[in-house]
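Q: Mind making up any chain with C-alpha cells?
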Amino acid sequence: MELHATTIFAIKHNGKGAMAGDGQVTLGESVVMKHTARKVRRLFHDRVIAGFAGSVADAFTLFEKFESKLNEYNGNLERAAVELAKEWRSDNALRKLEAMLIVMDEETLLLVSGTGEVIEPDDGILAIGSGGNYALAAGRALMRHNGNDMEAKEIAKHALEIASEICVFTNGNIIVEEL
C-alpha cells in the first residue's frame, strides 16, 4: 500500500500569490496515517512556493529535483519547471513517479506533471490532488462572488476548507503560504 498526500490549491490575485495544502496523509483507501503533513513549502530563499499531491515518496523526490533545478537556473521558475518536466518525462525511473506539483513565484503560477506538461492557468487558479476539483470550484466561485473583497490567502484557505468538507482524503488542517 502507498501513502498518499491530497489537496493543494494556489491562486494569483490582486498582485499576491497564495498556496494552501491540507495535512492529511492516507494509507491506501481507508486509513489516515497523519493529520499534520506539510505539503506546501517555500524554496529558493523563500521566493518560490511549491506544493505536491500524490504518493508521498514520489512527491518528495520531485520536490528535491525541482529545488535542484531552481538552484541550477538561479531561481528562474519557468526554466526550472520546464527542465524538471523534460527530465521527468524522459527518465525511466522518474517517469514512474505518481505525483504532481504546483509551483509559484511573484510573477508566475505553474502546474508541473510527469507527462511533460507545464501549464499556466488562464484565470490564475490551480488545484491538484483528490480534493483538487472541489477546491478549484470553490476558489472560482469565491473569486466570482467575493473576489474583490478578499485577499489571495483568504481565498486559498476558504477553497481548501470547502474541499475538506466534501473530500474524505482532505482534512481541515490547512497550511497557507503567501508571496
Observations:
- The mean pLDDT is 90.
- The longest strand covers residues 48-55.
- Residues 3-178 form a domain with the Glutamine Phosphoribosylpyrophosphate, subunit 1, domain 1 fold (CATH 3.60.20.10).
